[in-house]
């Protein structure tokens, strides 16, 4: 109960359980008012739940699968209530967790390769980890830095959307978390997490993996620590992205989602968030609101290679008529037109485009004709 007046209200069902000489954690979790009592900061309840043994059992409900024939309480209610207790953000309970390596190890055992990863429990795991990111940022990050396999394991589970959300926040693509923890940027800079994510376009055939990888990378283009923002904009990274996008015999989702990241890189509104710009300014980094010439050059080189390949195998437009490649051509056309659009409003980018002879030739011989084909106003009926 949120408030009580002695003599005017009956004891809560939770207090009734706590009054018993012997009671179990399960009895409390089965009581409907337990979350309400946690939010009301019931001292007796919190002092019980803060104990390491109770925190450990709460974690086990969240990270351990149970047999299919288990009671519904054990399979559904207890994991849900355990997650809700952690996300009540009670300081003393969270401290018990983050200050104990064994408990943190139990929490992150969920992402180990030999562990089952049900969507239900993945959601609860993610809510607890994100809660720690927000309320216990420093100890959480210190633990992850000391256990680098966690990042690899999270990337391997990127196809699970709730895990993807953890990874997105972990690498800094969320301006609310790291504003006061600039020291984590150096650690992020020294990892190859972005390369691991982009390589999922090549190592996985799952459309869910491709979509979630693109969502993280696009988020990084919009809002990320300076080190990662610089890396994702580099010609080498752009080349890696295009390599996966144009790789032969890959699912269509690879091309669609990898080129969506390229388009995000060309978005002039990227990294324009006011609050995060303040953070970047405090770190003496300039405002970045448009694609850098280096990023554009990286794309031009990749598009040039793509055009050379097409020329070696027949006329570009003839190749585009093949049904299984129509989507590929459309995405490449969209990316190229985005480059031209940026060049029209940015003299540096315009200069880079005009100075690249392969681009000028490709634009004249291929892109102009392709745009004419796709211009619906030039289509004839009948």
UniProtKB/TrEMBL annotation:
Superkingdom to which the source organism belongs: Eukaryota
Molecular function GO labels: protein phosphatase binding; protein phosphatase regulator activity
Pfam families in the cross-refs: SAPS
InterPro entries cross-referenced by the UniProt entry: ARM-type_fold, SAPS
Family to which the UniProt record says this protein belongs: Belongs to the SAPS family.
Protein name: SIT4 phosphatase-associated family protein
Gene name of the record: gb02296
């Amino acid at each position: 109960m949120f408030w009580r007046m002695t003599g005017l209200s009956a004891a809560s069902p939770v207090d009734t359980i706590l009054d018993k000489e012997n009671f179990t954690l399960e009895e409390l979790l089965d009581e409907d008012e337990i979350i309400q009592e946690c939010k009301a900061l019931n001292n007796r309840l919190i002092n019980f739940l803060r104990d390491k043994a109770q925190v450990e059992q709460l974690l086990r409900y969240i990270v351990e699968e149970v047999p299919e024939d288990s009671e519904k309480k054990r399979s559904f209610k207890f994991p849900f209530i355990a997650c809700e207790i952690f996300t009540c953000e009670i300081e003393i309970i969270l401290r018990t967790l983050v200050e104990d390596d064994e408990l943190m190890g139990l929490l992150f055992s969920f992402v180990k390769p030999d562990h089952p990863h049900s969507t239900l429990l993945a959601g609860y795991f993610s809510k607890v980890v994100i809660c720690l990111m927000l309320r216990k940022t420093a100890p959480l990050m210190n633990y992850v830095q000391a256990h680098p396999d966690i990042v690899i394991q999270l990337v391997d589970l990127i196809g699970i959307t709730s895990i993807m959300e953890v990874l997105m926040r972990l690498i800094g693509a969320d301006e609310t978390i790291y504003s006061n923890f600039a020291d984590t940027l150096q650690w992020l800079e020294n990892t190859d997490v972005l390369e691991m994510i982009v390589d999922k376009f090549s190592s996985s055939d799952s459309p869910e993996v491709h979509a979630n990888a693109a969502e993280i990378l696009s988020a990084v283009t919009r809002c990320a620590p300076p080190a990662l923002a610089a890396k994702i904009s580099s010609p080498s990274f752009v080349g890696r992205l295009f390599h996966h996008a144009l790789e032969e015999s890959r699912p269509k989702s690879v091309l669609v989602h990898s080129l969506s990241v390229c388009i995000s890189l060309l978005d002039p509104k990227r990294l324009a968030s006011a609050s995060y710009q303040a953070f970047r300014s405090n770190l003496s980094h300039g405002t970045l609101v448009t694609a850098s010439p280096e990023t554009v050059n990286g794309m031009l080189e990749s598009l040039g290679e793509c055009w050379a390949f097409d020329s070696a195998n027949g006329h570009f437009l003839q190749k585009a008529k093949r049904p299984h490649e129509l989507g590929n051509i459309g995405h490449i056309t969209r990316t190229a037109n985005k480059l031209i659009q940026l060049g029209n409003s940015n003299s540096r980018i315009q200069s880079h485009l005009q100075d690249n002879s392969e681009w000028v030739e490709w634009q004249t011989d291929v892109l102009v004709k392709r745009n004419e084909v796709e211009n619906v106003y030039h289509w004839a009926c009948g």
